[in-house]
């Protein structure tokens, strides 16, 4: 890590002065004199501009998703890498995939500069190290089927850039998500996604609009990738992991919405399917037993629609008599 000197500070200040996310807004210089309601209205108006900025980058986002899904279908992983707010957003998105899509915890991974403790406490200097990013990726045993998404509002964070550079040199797919145009991060990645949201309400506080934009894009990356991988049936989360009472109730509701079956049929199918929602739906809709449903899903690589098509062309092993016809 390079030692900080007055000359370094001068260079960094000059760099920050060129970034849209760091720009000072004179019209907001006396925002602290406004009423709470006026500040809230101003902030809400700022936030409303974020979806439009994301919409301008949808073609780039879609291309990154298709490339990610292709690699994950071959067994690759989705790995986020960032520092500070950006790193926390990546860890958050990764941590929500197992309960939502029944992914293995090692399939979608969030790396934050400084390690897990940096989620709640700043780790000084960690974001400034490209070497630290390389070490974190090497610990994961990076492969060419993996996708690494570097996240940085400024687009200049060494940790995020280092992660993308190392991943690309290793043959992995790379995505650079930033909130400034012509960023070093986007230039380093195969897929650059620059969502330019403009200067922040508080000068340089990129946990605001930039953070919101990053969260929206990460939502798309993980969710649409999982849709492409067959983790949903229509807009139903058929791979949901029923790990608590709320999710158990949601599982039954999902089966009901997909099949319009009776409560008794739903309970019977879920019991035979060991709680697997997708298996239970296929059992009911195709009128097959759990073993046949699992074989059909395996043959269709987990895609329920494809399994239903295969079932219609295959002699069935009937499920319980109480299961209604599709």
Overview of the structural elements:
- 50% of the residues lie in helices and 8% in strands.
- The protein is of the alpha/beta class.
- The longest helix has 20 residues, at 209-228.
- Residues 320-326 have low confidence and may be disordered.
- Its EC number is 4.2.1.126.
- Homodimer.
- It catalyses: N-acetyl-D-muramate 6-phosphate + H2O = N-acetyl-D-glucosamine 6-phosphate + (R)-lactate.
Compressed to H and E, one letter per element, the order equals HHHHEHHEHEHEHEHHHHHH
Q: How many separate helices?
A: 15
Q: Report the mean per-residue pLDDT as an integer.
A: 92
Strand order of the largest sheet: 2-1-3-4-5
The portion of residues forming beta strands comes to 5-15%
Q: How would you classify the helix and strand content by structural class?
A: alpha/beta
Number of strands: 5
- Estimate the global geometry from the Cα principal axes: globular
GO molecular function: lyase activity
Domain SIS: 68-231
Keywords: Carbohydrate metabolism, Lyase
Active site: 96 (proton donor), 127
Summary of the model, kept short:
With 326 residues, this protein is an alpha/beta fold. The protein is built from 15 helices and five strands.
Give the topology, please:
Layout: H1 6-17, H2 36-47, H3 50-55, H4 58-72, E1 78-82, H5 84-95, H6 97-101, E2 108-112, H7 130-139, E3 147-152, H8 158-169, E4 173-178, H9 184-188, E5 191-194, H10 209-228, H11 245-259, H12 263-272, H13 277-286, H14 290-299, H15 304-312
Parallel strand pairs: 1-2, 1-3, 3-4, 4-5
